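Long-time lurker, first post. I've been practising inverse folding by hand and with some scripts of my own, and I keep getting stuck on stretches where the structure tokens seem ambiguous. Below is the full token string for one chain I'm working on. Before anyone asks, I'm not after the true native sequence, just a reasonable design that respects the backbone. If someone could post their per-position residues I'd love to compare against what I wrote down in my notebook.
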């Protein structure tokens, strides 16, 4: 009995399912490919910015900590950003992570990442560093999950004070910075992620997450632009 199987015509490259588009995309730069697809538009700055400093604490800067990430340069950049915001009269909001000892309020996240025990109440690794650190009267958001918005009053606080733009810095780029920027977009705020003032434990997740944030959810800006805007 004759076979009823049909065969796709072969095209350049030898893949019967490739009409040339896949090879064309592989040869194009990632930026060009995303731009042609309609990603990477500009959100732009609003009228009332606030700086949000994500989880800059000793856990990421103490070489003896399991979460040490070697992000000293990013923290120094964040400190300059905070200084510019205060000098310009703009609000600065800090976030911190705190769990009940043993993680009773940490859920699946605490189970997935055992190193989060660094943020158990009373652990000195959860403390703020010397600079940047909150001043009396500045808002400190305590959270248990990646986004500064999840389970907190941050959105209500920003709305009540008329903030429309969040200048986001801190740690880590692929985790809490990314989650906060995505939620900022979803809550209707303009996320400006300051690339120099964010850090991660490896360059690859840092760069890939900045790329994806810039393509879909936020404007990624440098320290110089952010400082000038805040000034």
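-- Answer (accepted) --
I ran through it position by position. Result:
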């Amino acid at each position: 009995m004759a076979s009823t199987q049909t065969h796709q015509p072969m095209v350049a490259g030898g893949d019967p399912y490739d009409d040339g588009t896949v090879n064309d995309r592989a040869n194009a730069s990632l930026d060009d490919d995303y731009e042609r697809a309609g990603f990477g538009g500009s959100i732009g700055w609003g009228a009332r910015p606030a700086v949000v400093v994500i989880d800059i604490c000793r856990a990421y800067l103490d070489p003896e900590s399991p979460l040490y990430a070697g992000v000293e340069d990013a923290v120094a950049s964040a400190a300059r950003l905070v200084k510019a915001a205060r000098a310009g009269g703009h609000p600065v909001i800090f976030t911190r992570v705190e769990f009940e000892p043993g993680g009773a309020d940490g859920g699946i996240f605490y189970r997935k990442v055992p190193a989060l025990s660094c943020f158990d109440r009373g652990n000195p690794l959860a403390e703020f560093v010397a600079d940047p650190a909150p001043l009396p009267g500045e808002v400190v958001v305590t959270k248990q999950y990646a986004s500064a918005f999840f389970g907190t009053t941050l959105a209500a606080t920003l709305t009540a004070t008329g903030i429309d733009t969040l200048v986001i810095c801190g740690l880590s780029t692929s985790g809490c910075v990314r989650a906060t920027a995505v939620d900022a977009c979803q809550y209707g705020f303009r996320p400006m992620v300051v690339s120099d003032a964010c850090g991660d434990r490896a360059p690859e997740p840092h760069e890939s997450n900045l790329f994806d944030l810039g393509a879909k959810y936020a404007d990624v800006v440098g320290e110089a632009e952010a400082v000038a805007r805040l000034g």
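A couple of notes from the structure itself: DSSP finds eight helices and six strands in the chain. The first strand starts at residue 49 and ends at 54. Happy to go over any region you disagree with.
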